[in-house]
Design goal:
With 69 residues, the chain is mainly α. The chain has a domain at 26-51. The chain is 51% helix and 0% strand. The chain contains 3 helices and no strands. The protein has helices at residues 7-22, 29-43, 48-51.
């Protein structure tokens, strides 16, 4: 689709997108970073990458070995 549009049309689309983005509310990183840190620390106990998955609830554990008869 982008190849079908002229350079002027592409620039017009870009300007429209930038006009939309400038209206987004901005939050200082000092505030946002603290909120993210607090959330991560609060949810650390539920994170399976940190505490692991119990063997009985692990959907990827091997069900059984290979038997050759």
């Amino acid at each position: 689709m982008a190849q079908e549009l002229s350079e002027k049309e592409l620039l017009k689309m870009e300007v429209e997108q930038l006009k939309k983005e400038v209206k987004n509310p901005r939050t200082p990183i000092s505030k946002t970073g603290k909120e993210i840190k607090d959330y991560v620390e609060a949810e650390a106990g539920n994170d399976p990458l940190l505490k692991g998955v119990p063997e009985d609830k692990n959907p990827f554990k091997e069900k059984g070995g290979c038997m050759i008869s």
